[in-house]
Amino acid sequence: MNLLDRITIDKNILLGKPTIRGLRISVDQIIKALAAGLNAEEILEDYPELEREDIKAALLYASKIIESEKVYNVKS
Q1: How far apart are CA 17 and CA 40, in angstroms?
Q2: In CATH, what number is assigned to the domain containing residue 29?
Q3: pTM for the whole structure
Q4: CA–CA dist 38, 36 (Å, integer)
């Protein structure tokens, strides 16, 4: 299974936010948890329905979004 296949978008789940495997756990929840200092083991304890590959998928999805961002030369 491709990691990105774990990311689902369904307008009926969390208003269409990207989620993990159709669960009510959004990609941004996982990214925010990591940014707050939680490690993968702690996230998996908090969300027992998640798998380690789901966390990897969330990170990959976020990196793909950032990768495709257009950066404009903005003068400060």
Answers
A1: 21
A2: 1.10.10.10
A3: 0.87
A4: 6
